[in-house]
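Problem 3 from the worked examples.
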Amino acid sequence: MRRFRFNLEKLLEVRAFHERRAELVLAEKAGRCALLEARLEEIAESRRRTGREMFSTGRQLPDYRAAELYIVRLDRDRDRTIEELAAAEVEREAARADYVEKRKAREAIDKLKERRQAEYYRLAEREETKALDDMARRRPVESIDLRAPADRQGAATEDLRAPADRQGAAAIDHRFPAGRRGAVAKG
């Protein structure tokens, strides 16, 4: 049986390449979003820690003022990071949509390949079965045809049963009269 060959294999490879590239872009955008979310968590933790330390014992007015300015700076950083995260999430969603589109395009060709491959092997199996059936049917005919013409004529009249079967048939035949060979004997 010949090996299956898909005519659109190159197109499938190109689509798989584009899908992989879109997946890498999506991973990059998702990584950027994860970094910004981690940065937001870090800013929130710094703000909580600074708020607790600001009112601890032994602090002076300049320490209080410095902590307050630091909190204002953290709030600005948080706002800027939230804006960056919103923009990054929009980019991530665009990259996800692009990836889904590329994956669907590849899967369409992949499903077509699977259907054609299944059809190819089903037809090949059918042809192989047909060829084997033809060979099986031809085999007895060829063995009879290879005999000499004189043997072919004698084969039609000759009793083809095994010798033991012929003797058993003769033993059964002598119990019944000639006219009743097919009838059942009553005891």
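Problem 4, a separate protein:
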Amino acid sequence: MYSDRQPAGVQRPWRLGILAALFTSSCSACGPADAVDSAEGIFRWTISTVVEIDAPPARVWRVLVDLPAYREWNPFIVEATGMVAAGERLSLRMALPGREPMSIAPRLLVVEPERELRWKGRLVLPGLFDGEHAFVLTPLADGRTRLDHWERFAGVLLPIAKGMIYDATVQSFHALNAALAERAVSR
């Protein structure tokens, strides 16, 4: 008769192997191949977008850090308040297409004027659904700016959440990028 019980201290290597496979496998069925780094696995994924803006980094930065004005132009982060300084918490209302806005209170990790704005937020507890969101500005020729806008997600809820929010989040990133570019050019 088979028993799952083993003497104390005896490892079950096949169980560890299954866990290791879950934590390190890629999820090719979760989205486009260029949107998921195969080394990330099903409990980590990244959305990354790039846009070139016909405005200098200083102007793009002013639009990014003018949090009260987000409600006027930002289709994704529809409300934002807080002090823009590393270590501070922001209060953000994010709206994915076709969904009710949700509030998050991320902590600012990096605030480098005219270069990078980055925060990290989480859903309820660390490790469930965490997101590190960044706007990285690079000066280009002729007073233009390259914006690298990305978010790294991690957590045990990602395999479930990805199918529900991935496409809408990518769409929202592109909409934010276009609106930011339009706002920066018009200022």
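Solution to problem 4. The chain has one domain: 42-186. The two ends are 77 Å apart (CA to CA).
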